[in-house]
Write a structure and sequence with these properties.
The chain is of the alpha+beta class. It has 3 helices and 4 strands, in the order H-E-E-E-E-H-H. The protein is flat, with a radius of gyration of 17 Å. About 10% of the residues are buried.
Length: about 130
């Protein structure tokens, strides 16, 4: 599923609030509708954005592209919680971006191994830590 419009460089607070509300409603409705089905009990959803946002605002009520971002994983098999450390808002890289605390390939490795029950190394080309959320 693709939801467009998160590339906000102005008026970000209002726009993202609406987009995240739409996403919440759609995912909640989807998960509720499949929860009692056999496939629903084995469904895992991964939500991510291909780019993060900068910590520092850009002067237009928005932010520019950054590096680190969050990933949401949900479903009946997922052990909820925060995996990794909270990123520092003051210790940034040389470009002023957040420094990630979890390699996104570890998220993929965890899903491949825990949900698809396959080896992740042939898919990812290397071994990455399994985060244990499934």
């Amino acid at each position: 599923v693709t939801q467009g419009g998160y590339d906000t460089h102005a008026g970000e607070l209002t726009i993202q609030s609406g987009l995240l509300s739409q996403l919440d409603s759609a995912v909640t409705t989807f998960m509720s509708s499949i929860s009692s089905t056999p496939r629903g009990r084995n469904t895992t959803v991964v939500i991510y954005s291909e780019f993060g946002r900068r910590v520092q605002g850009n002067g237009s009520g928005g932010s520019d592209h950054g590096t680190a971002n969050n990933v949401y994983v949900l479903g009946p098999q997922v052990h909820g919680g925060l995996y990794g450390d909270y990123p520092s808002l003051t210790r940034l890289d040389d470009n002023g971006d957040l420094i990630h605390t979890v390699d996104f390939r570890s998220v993929y490795a965890t899903v491949i191994e825990g949900v698809l029950e396959a080896e992740s190394k042939p898919v990812l080309g290397h071994s990455y830590a399994n985060l244990g959320f499934v």
